[in-house]
Write a structure and sequence with these properties.
The radius of gyration is 21 Å and the shape is globular. With about 350 residues, the chain is an alpha/beta fold. It has 12 helices and 16 strands.
Amino acid sequence: TGGYPSPHVCSFRERMLVVGRPLSESAIRQYAAEIREAVVRHDLTFFEAVTVLAMYAFRADGVEMAVMEVGLGGRLDATNVVSPEVTAVTNVAMDHSDYLGDTLAAIAREKAGIIKPGVPFFTAETDPEIRAIMRGLAEAAGAPFVAVEAPADSDVQVDDAHTTLTVETAPWGRLTIRTPLVGYHQAANAALAVKMLEELDEPWRPDADEVLEGFASVVYHGRDEIARLDGRTWLFDVAHNTAGIHSLVDTIDRLELQRPLVGLIGVLGDKDWHTMLPPLLSRMDAAFLTQPPSAPAERRWDPVEVADQVDSLTVVRVVEDFVEAMRRAAERAGQGTVVVTGSVHTVGSAMRLLGLDPLGE
């Protein structure tokens, strides 16, 4: 089995998984050297080149079934060259509007570009209008359309280490799934994944025990991930758009996190921080706006300008130096909780500084 998630949080190696494990640096270097001439000849973008590298590695390592995460949109994304067994769109949110369109309907059409004739298409989207657009595109392509309902709140339990949900399935009956991914939104994602697994034919469809084991052993860093260091709680979430922030806020509301809650927030300049910050700051006792050091220079925000414009009752400080901002956030939190969010760059930088790089690099 292979996995192609993106972007990475701390290490580039996170992007290519075989049997659940990242490829070694030596293997990546070898495969990259072998495809280099083609990548240069075709003048590929970074993501196109990495997609080619992943597919080349999967073939070389004997991968038979892979999960490929779309990078941007769907219709024109590099991953859309595959011939899938199933396809899915979790939901549609306002993001990457400069590329995908400035309405949810336009973005939905771009994302639905992964629909293929005869290939079952799944979505957990709840908006009736967006769901209708996807249904229409699936029917036009001759693809079976499956709308997956989110589990009832009463069927989901969220704590600081797990999410547990109960689902009814055709092949396995009633399943109680427990995953280390935290948040109600992860229960909705899990329900969608279960329905996709149901659709697989033999020999690809797992049995019930394998389904439960798979969910229980999921590793996906920086998504409402909680760590405790020196008596202090750290909550890492890569939420980089308004929908992601709302999921984070919902998770915060469901957990009994030690107070004070202090935000360490770094957002890219092309993101809609105007709508991201208010719901987040409303849950914080204090917040520090900072500049993640790994953010590309052309995409950096101006936290001073942001602080001047944001309307919040929460005490907001600007500390552009990331290391100093981390120190002050930790100091302000004391034995409470630091919430690190706003970007993959922010979370990755903080995890590395705290020695929490998943691969130890």
